[in-house]
Predict the 3D structure of the following.
Amino acid sequence: MDQPSTQAFLLAALTAGGGITGFARTGSVPSIAAGVTVGLLYGLGGLRQRNRQPYGLELALLASVLLAGSSIPRAVKTQKPLPVALSLIAAFGLYRFGTLWRAQM
């Protein structure tokens, strides 16, 4: 689980699965669109990291920034469990992939 690519794949599954679940429960098109988009970014970042291709960390970091930008303000405003959980996922991604990206510089 220490591999950044494995962590990116896990975050991809969580975000895409959450978006699909949100759509199935409420019919929310924004949930599926956002969840699958962020999940694809995490997945593509993990795939590029695993294959030692450029921009893998950057894609995973971008996914974390997008997720944080949408979930943290909602978590602060509503204090509901789902936005708080998404904010924690985003914070983990920001810390993990941001730290690795900074170490590359």
About this structure: The mean pLDDT is 93. The two ends are 24 Å apart (CA to CA). The longest helix spans residues 81-104.
